[in-house]
Amino acid sequence: MKKNNKWLIIVMAIIGITHIFPFYLLITTSFKPMDDPSSKWALPSFSYLDNFKNAWEQANLGQAFFNNIIITALSIILVIVIGAFASYPLARYKTRLNKFMYLLFISALIVPPLTILVPLYKFIVDIGGMNSYWSIILLHVTFNLPMTIFLFTGFISSIPVELDEAAMMDGMSRFGLFFRIIMPLLKPITATATILAGVNVWNDYQFSVFFLQSPEMKTMTVSLSSFFSQYTNNIGWVAAGSLLSALPIIILYLFLQKYFVSGLSSGAVKG
Amino acid sequence: MEEKLSTNDSNLKITAKKKYALKKRRSMGSPVWLNLMYVPALLLFCVFIFYPFFNGIKISFTNWDGYSQAFSWVGIENYKRMLDDPNIGTVIKNTLIYGVGSTLFQNLIGLFYAILLNQSIKARGIVRTIVYLPAIISPLIMGYIWYFFFQFDGGALNDIILLFQDKPLNLLANPELNVWIITFVNTFQFIGIAMVIYLAGLQSIPADFYEAAELDGASASKKFRYITLPMLMPSITINVVLNLIGGLKLFDVIVALTNGGPGYASQSLSTMMYKIYFASQDAGYASALGNLTFVLISLISITALIYLRKKEIA
Fold first, then answer.
1. Do residues B237 and B307 both lie within one domain?
2. Count of domains in chain A?
3. What are the residues facing B62 on neighbouring strands?
4. Greatest CA span in chain B, whole angstroms?
C-alpha cells in the first residue's frame, strides 16, 4: 500500500508540473528584455518591468481593461436577469408551448456564433452597432442565454411546487411569488451562471475581434492580437500583456475555485 | 351559535373555492401573461440568432461582396464552388481532427486524471487546481503561451532540442505536425473540465457496487469494465458532445499559433470562413461555408448525442 502511494504521488507530481510549466514560461518570458539571450527556462531577475510598461502603453491595455470591465459587468447583469425571468415560466408551467420554447432556447447551444458571422456582421453594420458597447453586450447576452436558461430552468424545477402553492393560497400573485419567494432561492445558481458567463465574456475573442475594431473600443484579447501581429518579434511585450489580461481572472479563480469549477462544468449538472 | 356556524361554513366554502381555482389554474397550465417573462430572451434570439441565420442562407445564394449594395443571385453556385475548391479537403480534414482528436484525448486523459485524483491523497487538491487552471484563460492567450513553447526562434522546446542536435525545429510551420499541435493545445486547455465532470461521475457511483463485486472476486479491470464504465455513461455523453462542439468550431487557438498557415495547412472551417470574408471579400462564399460548418457541427454532435444516450439506457 505504501509503495503504491509513492508511485501515485510521483505520477501526480508529473501531471502537476506538466500543467503548470506553460504558466512558468509565460512569467519568465514577460520579465526578460528582448535582447536577453538566456533560455525561456531560465529564471529572470524580476527587476526588469519595461515589458509591462510598454505593453500597457503600446497596446493601450488600460483602455482595453476598462472596456473589458464595462462589457463583462453589463453582460452578466443582463444575462442573469433576462435568463432568470425566462426560466420561471419555462420551469413552472410546462405547457406544450413552453416545452417547445425551452427546446428552442437550448438548441441555440449547438449554433456556433461563428457560422452566422457573415449575416450577423451585416446586421450589426446595418443597425449601426459597430464599435459600440451596446451591440457587443447584446450579442454576448444572447449567446450566453441558452446556458443560463438551461441552468436556471433546471434549478427552479428542483424547488418544490408546494412553496408556490402555499404562497398563492396566501393571495400572492404569480409575479409577486417570483420576486419574493423564488428569486431569493436562486443565489447558488446565480453564482454559477455569473462565473460561466463572466469567463466567456471576459475571454471572448471571436465576437470582439469582428465588432470592436476601433482602437478605443478594443478589449484585452483584441488589443493583444493586433499587438502580436505588429510586434511578433517582441515576445516579451506579448507575454507581459497576456499575463496582465489573464491575471484578474486567475486571482478570482484562486479565491472562488469552487464556483468556477461548478460554473464551467455546469454541463454536468443535468444531462 | 348559528351565526358562528355560518361564518365557518362560508370560510370553508372560500377555501374550497380557492382550492378549486388553484386546481383549475394548474390544470389549465400557465396563464398566458406569465409567458411575457421570456419575451425579452425570445426577442434577442430572433434578432441576433434566427434572423441572421435565415439571412445567411439567403446570402449564400448570392455573390455579395460584403459591403456594397449590389449583388446578384447565383443559385447554388457558391456550394458548387466548394466542391472545386482545392483547399476544402484539407480544411474539412483539419476541422475533423480538431473536433474528433481533441474529444478523444480530452476524454481519455480526463478520465485517467479523474480516476487518479479520486484517490485519497493529500496533494490531489493542488493538482486539480492546476489541471483546471487553463480552462479559465482565454484560448487566444493559451495559444500565445504555447507559441512561446513551440516557436522557431528562441522557443522553449527548441532550447531543449538544441541540446541534442544543432538545428532547431520549426514545428509550427510543419504542415503535417502543426494540426496536431493545435489539437494538443486545445486538449491541454480543456482537460480540466472533462476531468471534473468525470470526477463528479465517479463520486456518484455507490461504494457498495464495488464491495459486492469484490465479494464475488472481480478483478480491477472487470470492476472498471462492468461497474465504472457503465455508471459513467452520462458523464461520457456530456463530455463527448461538449468537446466535439468545442473542437469543431475551434478558432482562437489557430489564430494564435499558426493563423491557419502555412497556406491552408492548419486552417479550420471557422478560420477559412473568416479569411474569405474579410481578406477576399467574398461574403456569398463565406456564408455558404458558414452553413456547411453549421450542418457539419450539428450533424456530428447530434448523432453522437443520440448514439451515446442509447448506450446510457442499455
1. yes
2. 1
3. B73
4. 110
